[in-house]
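Exercise 7.
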Amino acid sequence: MIRSSRKLPSLPYFWSLIDWTLPSLNPYKGKLQRAQNVADLAAIAKKRTPKVVFDYVEGSAVDEVAYDRTRQALARVEINSRVLRDVSDIDTSTKILGKSIDLPICFAPTGYTRLMHHVGEPAVANVAAENNLIYALSTMGTTSPAELAAAVPNARRWFQLYVMKNRSDTLAVIKQAKDAGFEALVLTVDTPVAGLRYRDNRNGLTVPPKIRLSTVLSIARKPIWWLNLFTTGKLEFAAFRGWDKPLSELAALIFDPSTDFDDIKWLRTVWDGPIVIKGIQSVADAKAVAKCGVQGIILSNHGGRQFDRGPVPLEILPEVVDAVGKKVEVYIDGGMMSGLDALSAVALGAKAVFIGRAYLYGAMANGEKGVQQVIDLMRREFINGMSLSGSRTIEEVQKNGAQIRSSFHE
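Solution. The predicted structure, written as tokens, is:
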């Protein structure tokens, strides 16, 4: 029997093994430093924000089936891999509307962002600016176009729009975006009426949150969040100053069920810049929209937050790219929670992906630093995936391609 030789313990070696870092008084600092992915940040966010806020970000419509299907589809993507490639130099840059961005991951428009963190939309836009990415501001944002432009003048800013029942209201909002120097208009078309959001209804979500008896316990459990809410100005929709009624009533004002293809043509007469249509869920609609003179489309089912039995955009992505990819740029959103999710969509043909929940988890967990951490984690995963699949550029990612397995067990 072979035995290991024994030596006297080396005190310097033992000393070098000791981690002398003092524990932080901030209970979240260590968890943030140890976070390996967006899911870890989501767990931190859940502990730092009131239930009504976290549920708004995490939740979807009705039975929340559409979002689950989207996540399952992403998990079934198989990226084609090549070996014996020199992957010592990885280039993740690509061009969107003729201008280069450093990573094909952009920030989708999300409403009520100051509800998640008191700085809100400017914090996210600043991360976009610092990383040469794109940020889209929502019509239902808590920062106005002018305020965002003043706070983050160097960011590539797109403005998301709903065609409202009163077209003069639509024109007024468009004018705000135009005057503030926004680059592109993103028309959302998948919400002719508001979806049924049972989680939010049960929680009684309003903006700003109402102070009820049940809120007292929430304040006691999340004092910092509430202190930030009370001390950073009134929380309201920037495009609808003074509105404090339930979200369903606001939605009834904003969403116009009569919106059709003629409205896209009308937008072309009142907006000189690029127009991107968000919410396409079929090849037929992608073809029809491409004929309207727009510059891009975003395949989207609203992250499952409106129609709970709609198609999974990822599953039609390759066919849409084949049909219109030479006429318009094709992007995608919904359920993108990692760099590998983004890489999967790009490998299937998307020019870029838009993230929503992912960066909101980061904002809830640690404000602007949390949003930056989301990008850092997703970039690391994206580059690692490119390297392991033998792709050095976005062009090579798409040349190598990918496919969606019909099941996990095929």
